[in-house]
């Protein structure tokens, strides 16, 4: 192996991509919480028709499912922004801090969505969107 070859580092921002990819799964778990293992006839989760079961839910379960969908929707832009920032040679500290801020905002977003706080949720969504734009441009010289 060539000793001058540098190996790629798995940065904090890349770890944040992994966390962002796991957030929809967390939302799905929240939506199904308390219904897993319960008989379908008693309102339990129906694994033979998971999307149908989720579509029939209301209140916090429906909001957790909507947060799951939104978490999938924001994922491509976040992944792309992190990769582009790395390719542009962004200062790693700034990129890592922005990526962690994005993740924190997304966690707050999910909490506010499930808790039925629509105004605060929308404000946090907007903040996370602008942080993602900042990530995209943090490497711009």
Write structural notes for this entry:
This protein is mainly α and 141 residues long. The chain has a domain at 12-30 and 60-137. It has 5 helices and no strands. It has helices at 12-32, 50-55, 59-87, 92-114, 118-137. Helix 3 runs antiparallel to helix 4 and helix 3 (59-87) packs parallel to helix 5 (118-137). The chain is elongated and about 60 Å long. The protein starts with 11 loop residues before the first helix and ends with a helix. The mean pLDDT is 92.
How would you briefly describe this protein structure?
With 141 residues, the protein is mainly α. It has helices spanning 12-32, 50-55, 59-87, 92-114, 118-137. It contains five helices and no strands.
Jot down its keywords.
single chain; 141 residues; mainly alpha
Any chance you could write out the topology, listing elements then pairs?
Elements: H1 12-32, H2 50-55, H3 59-87, H4 92-114, H5 118-137
Helix pairs in contact: 1-3, 1-4, 3-4, 3-5, 4-5
Q: Indicate the low-confidence ranges by residue numbers.
A: none
Please, how many helices? 5
**Secondary-structure-derived class:** mainly alpha
Percent of residues in helices = over 70%
What is the straight-line distance between the termini? 33 Å
Tell me, rounded to a whole number, the average pLDDT.
92
- Rg is 18 Å
Shape: elongated
Which percent band covers the strand fraction? under 5%
Major pleated sheet? none
Secondary-structure element series? HHHHH
**Secondary structure tally: strands:** 0
